[in-house]
Amino acid sequence: MSSMKGKVVVLVGCASGMGAATLKMLLADGATVIGFDNNRDNMADTLEEISEELPEFKGNLEMVYGDVTSSEDRSGLVAAAREKYGRIDSLLYVAGVLDLMCPAHKTDDALWQYVMDVNCNDCFYLVRDCLPMLLDHEGPAANVVIVGSVGGLYGSTAGAAYVTSKHAVLGLARNLAWSYHWRNLRVNVVNPGAILSGILGNAMEKWPDRDIMDSGGNELYNVRGGVSLGCDADGNTMMGTPEDIARAILFLLDDDNAYVNGAQITVDGGWTTF
Fold this sequence. Notes:
This protein is an alpha/beta fold and 274 residues long. It has helices at 17-28, 40-53, 71-84, 109-135, 160-180, 199-206, 242-253, and strands at residues 8-12, 32-37, 61-65, 90-93, 142-147, 185-192, 264-267.
């Protein structure tokens, strides 16, 4: 496995869950990271954890506060990378939101637009704006890694907006991989299954009045129910961890895996085998 030492990585959604786990692994492997997030409290907590767990690597991290849905904030992130480092070796898009299993007839314009923006549209805008630096890359291939979802593989894993957005971002990744492989750019996707992270809580906080029960009072969002999520050493079913996703992301960033392009790695404990 090659080292990330000296590589400049832009990590969108860096301050909690899968993003925070990826951030710590990148720093531990020697990468220089520009982290971007819209939650100041989570950013402060993550910085404190890094100071305690990885004090020798804290100097390799720059945190940028901003909202990925803001064109001004996205431009500020790209400008920060250009002005401080003059290049981007890898762009990681880990930001994402849920729609609380809302079917089409309960999905209003605001929910649809918000989920489509965060999960797909803003990913496209950011990749597009980073492409000049990614394509100006020297040496081993530059990388874009997008965190998708098993929701991009099936229609039954979430609501209308979420499933549509995750299918769309897979199409974006495939097109980018095909369009720029000759420019020394790799684009890959990691599809998480049920992961123990804060994304559900974030969605419920933003949309507190959303109904996540069906008409019969049955819970629709139950990531454990009837799904094989992997087993621990004792044979007990379990959910995945943010670190499971972070390890898959670092695999895709590894220069030794340069022939992996336009691919999807699904990390779901066997969910999609059903």
